[in-house]
Each structure stands twice: as C-alpha cells, then as structure tokens.
Specification:
11 strands; seven-stranded antiparallel sheet; single chain; alpha+beta; Jelly Rolls; binds 2-oxoglutaric acid; four-stranded antiparallel sheet
Length: 274
C-alpha cells in the first residue's frame, strides 16, 4: 500500500471537564463525531478487508456457542495493515482516552474488530479486565462503529458505576456471565444505561472494570465496530491468575512478568504522540 493512501488524522477533540467527571462516576461515556464521515470512509475498507481475510473459515452462526454468535472478533488488526495501524495509533483517539482516565499518557494494549453479523446473538454481560493481567484500573476501551448503528441494533449497555466495585464475579464471557450478572444487577439494584443509536465515527469509552453487554442483531446490517484498548503509561503487569490472563500476558504483554512495567514493543506510547 502506498504511503500516501494512509489517511491523515488532523485535529484534536477535547472532552469537557464535566464529561470527564461523569466518566469517572459512571465508567462510560460517548464522544459523538470523534472521527469524521470522510475519515471513516477512508479507514473502513482496510478494516473490513482485514476482518474478511481473518474470518474466511468462520463456522455458520447456528454452529457456534453464545460467545461465537456474539461477533466476529479479530484482534491485532494494526499489525496486518498500515491503514488500520493509522486508525489504531491515531493520537486524537488516544488523547481522549488519556483525558477520560485523567492520566498524562496512554499505551496500546491491543486493538480488535468486533463485527456483529446479521442474526448475530447478544454479547453477554462481562467485565473486560477479568481477561487483562494489569495492576491498575487505568484501562479503557474505545468502541467505534464504522457504520451507522440504528437503535434496533444498538450500542452497548453499561452498568453505571460498576467499575468502582472492581471484579464483580470473575466470569469470562458466556451464558454463566449473562445469568450471574443479571442476578447480581437485580439483587444490588444497579442502574443500567446505553448511548443507543450511534453514527459511524461516534465512539463510546468504558473502563476495564465497567460491566457491559450488547443486544442481538436481528437486522440485515453488519454491525462493524473497531475497538482500541489503551492502558495508562506507567502501569505494571498484574497477577496472571487465570488461563484467560495467561493468554493475554503472552499475546498483548510480550510475556512480561507480573510487576514489570507495561512498556514493551507491543505496547507503544500513543499519547503523547511522538
Ligand atoms: O461489541 C460488542 O458487542 C461488545 C464489545 C465489548 O464487550 C467490548 O468492547 O468490551
């Protein structure tokens, strides 16, 4: 791919202080228009091609389990294509992540595409950080649709303030996490909220401990979403105390031992941009 085909991401987006306070309290927020329609049009083909290449052997939906039905999940797309790399490494996105976490800098943890197919199932309740061996709660996901997502497909539903409770159940994503967290939300009287329909280029942000789910896709639309996960600069590898965390330690932390700084070649500093 010629270098000139890589879209330039000029300009910054600043989050108002009230929104940072709200993010702190709720553990999630939405930033509308974080990428422009032209930028999305420039990035989307490369991201969709990379997902297509990685999922040619995906089994039919009715042969998959609940997790498999929720989405086509393709991680580390930035390694496969310089255009996708420009999206994942965009300073504009990383700066918003740093502002929301109230930290000076953020590093890449990893990126992943999450494409919910037509007829795709719900994404069960879960907390991302159950998978992430990090010694800090300063982790955050940007979730950006590449197509307009109507209300009947919907974006994620979050449990307000759930990040303040840390690990609420250690369930990995599946039927057990959906049922267990449904009960927990009822028992504790937790409040849920969603940012509803989204335009391509809008983005939600949620922390690693924010409890969340997404509904099924009963439409003909492919809900193509790209995510980037950031961690605060200066955090360390935490306990590697489950098979899921062992995998993440290997894939996203270069095998670094608990207690080591998260600063390896797979975790470049994305903000401040160099
Ligand atoms: O896209 C989805 O359905 C769920 C996404 C999610 O759980 C996440 O980005 O943490």
């Amino acid at each position: 791919m010629a270098a000139e085909a890589i879209p330039e991401m000029l300009g910054t987006v600043t989050v108002p202080p009230e929104q940072v306070d709200e993010f702190d309290a709720l553990g999630h927020t939405v930033v509308r228009g974080l990428a422009s329609p032209d930028e999305i049009a420039a990035f989307r083909p490369a991201i969709e091609d990379a997902v297509r290449r990685a999922t040619t052997r995906a089994r039919p939906l009715d042969e998959r389990d609940t997790y498999g039905k929720a989405f086509l999940q393709v991680p580390n797309l930035c390694a496969s294509d310089p255009v996708v790399r420009a999206f994942t490494f965009a300073a504009r996105f990383a700066r918003v992540a740093a502002e929301l976490l109230r930290v000076d800098g953020v590093r890449l943890y990893h990126d992943q595409a999450l494409f919910k197919e037509p007829g795709g199932g719900h994404t069960p309740w879960h907390q991302d950080q159950v998978y992430w061996p990090l010694d800090s709660d300063r982790s955050i996901t940007m979730w950006m649709p590449l197509v307009d997502v109507p209300a009947d497909v919907g974006s994620m539903t979050f449990v307000d303030g759930s990040h303040r409770h840390g690990d609420l159940g250690s369930w990995v994503i599946g039927d057990e996490s959906e049922a267990g967290f449904d009960e927990l939300i009822r028992d504790r009287g937790f409040v849920t909220s969603t940012h509803g329909a989204m335009r391509a280029g809008d983005a939600t942000f949620h922390t690693g401990w924010t409890l969340h789910r997404a509904g099924a896709n009963e439409t003909d639309l492919l809900r193509s979403v790209m995510t980037v996960i950031y961690v605060a600069d200066g955090i360390r590898v935490g306990p590697v105390d489950s098979p899921a965390r062992q995998l993440d330690q290997m894939f996203w932390l270069g095998g670094a031992a608990p207690g080591s700084l998260v600063d390896g070649p797979g975790n470049p500093l994305l903000w401040p941009a160099s």
